[in-house]
Amino acid sequence: MSIERIRHASLREKVMTAEQAAEFVKDGMNLAITGFTGAGYPKALPTAIANKAKAAHARGESFGIGMVTGASTAPECDGVLAEAGAIKFRSPFQSDPTLRNSINAGHTAYQDMHLSHVEQQMRQGFYGKFDIAIVETAGITEDGKLIFAMGIGHGVEAIKNADKVIIEVNAAQNAGLEGMHDVYGEVGLPPHRKPIPLVGAFDRIGSPYMECPEDKILAIVLTNGGDRNSKFADPDDTSKRIASQIIDFLDHEVKAGRLPKSLLPLQSGVGNVANAVMAGLLDAPFEDLTGYTEVLQDGMLDLILAGKMKHASATALSFSPDALQRFNDNIEFLRDKLILRPMEISNNPEIIRRLGIIGMNAMIEADIYGNVNSTHVMGTKMMNGIGGSGDFTRNGFFSFYVSPSTAKDGKISSIVPMVSHHDHTEHDVMFIVTEQGMADLRGKSPKQRAKLIIENCSHPDYRDMLRDYYDRALAVSEKAGGVHTPHILLEALSWHQRFVETGDMRIK
Questions:
Q1: What is the dihedral sign for C-alpha 496, 498, 499, 501?
Q2: Please, is 101 exposed, middle or buried when counting C-beta atoms within 10 Å of its C-beta (0-12, 13-18, 19+)?
Q3: Are 318 and 297 contacting, i.e. CB atoms less than 8 angstroms apart?
């Protein structure tokens, strides 16, 4: 932990321990805490706040906070606070198992929402007043400006909207991050909102630094801890087959003259399958690719290092340990090839539509008409949240949803008669891809989509069951006089109910 990262002399006088800074956090406060998909979250304050909550609970006193982040954080943030019973309210996205259990047990109230909406709703006051923002930085300049770390997320609005700010300065973050950020906070609210002047995916429209009034800063805590840096699984046959189908399709579109050889800016959701698609592009016949995404992971980093991708824009960098080493080793090369923005810019629907983003995201399940559930297991158990997937699905030039065709050793089908929870409707989803095949849903009626999804995407163990359901649903709907989207309402969710009761969707 190095105080040299604080180059502003008078701000060094505000340095204190995490335990001292945690004393500013009181029961019932509403906190804006930075963090986006395992990057940019505070490393020390959450544990200190959690310990304070445990001590209060041991005395029989109440202690709980509201907590709005950019996206998911890590066990040492969401996890320790949830384990201490300190989170009363949480939004907009999470992925921590302890917090997930608290949400599903009803102990933590959770609002799942599109990430592009968060900062506007902060400005509008929908969350109420923010008492304190806790922000991770890589340093502070001579004139007191903040250098964000590996993720910006909602950090700009967190600092602007909170009454006070506590800053963590993390010496483990590469000092070469300075200059990689593009802080733009001029979005505003109607009727005075102005167009965002971003025309190309790599345009700079803001400042490398974030300004924060000195009198707003309560405390500065020095840390020296790495981000979550989860290791990705090596691409397996299933992931490779999914990736190859998307790449073959894009190659076909290039040859047909509907896409340039450089494609359009790419967005990739979080996870092993999405990362495998990026890895597959290393050997694909495309050049000078660009990225415009929310989280930049290993696959996109390797495309840049290999010279296949010119540059990429994101709001956070979330790498495995090996990829983080490659990033640190090559940061001078990467300085003019990566740019980090607030998530209100990275996920902005108008920009996504105008740039023509090719979006690729993961799903839990899709139904035979192309509706997608990306958040809830068996319709009731929150997994992580919708995140930014909806921003890119509804507004992207192409929107792909990917998943293995089965889960739980074949006991769950990813293609079902009706999704148990709707996140992305059939009106927005263009492509469903599993290792079995791809369904191009553009320009298709519901019945046409059903046949494509059943025949191309479902697992053979479930295909006859889906055909049987569809055929019987068609017959029932014909009698009822409504065959546009055939369903047997008493059976539409029976697959999920069967799994809940027997542990297997298949009929034994």
A1: positive
A2: middle
A3: yes
Rg of the chain in Å (alpha carbons): 23
Q: Which two tokens stand for residue 417?
A: 């008669």
Whole-angstrom distance, CA of residue 318 vs CA of residue 371: 29
Q: Look up residue 371 and give its amino acid.
A: N
What amino acid is encoded at 112 in this protein?
Answer: D
Give Cα separations from 3 to 6, 168, 451 (angstroms).
6, 11, 63
One-letter amino acid for residue 245 of the chain: Q
Amino acid occupying residue 467: R
| 400 Cβ neighbours under 8 A, 6+ residues apart | 246, 358, 359, 360, 361, 430, 431, 433
Q: Helix, strand or coil for residue 103? A: helix
Query: Alpha-carbon dihedral of residues 23, 29, 30, 32, nearest 10 degrees?
Result: 0
pLDDT, tens digit (0-9, with 9 covering 90-100), for 372-414? 999 999 999 999 999 999 999 999 999 999 999 999 999 999 9
Closest CA to 47 of 67, 10, 5, 76: 76
pLDDT digits (tens, 9 = 90+) for 174-226: 999 999 999 998 898 899 999 999 999 999 999 999 999 999 999 999 999 99
Element (H, E) at 163: strand 162-170
pLDDT band, residue 274 (cuts 50/70/90): confident
Q: Which of 324, 274, 321 is nearest to 299 (CA)?
A: 274
DSSP 189-222: -TTS-------STT---SBSSB---GGGEEEEEE
Instruction: Take residue 503 and report the two structure tokens written for it.
Output: 């542990």
pTM: 0.95
Among candidates 78, 88, 75, which has minimal Cα distance to 26? 88
* Closest of 289, 349, 275, 302 to residue 120, by C-alpha: 349
Q: Which two tokens stand for residue 192?
A: 């005075």
State the catalytic residues: 294
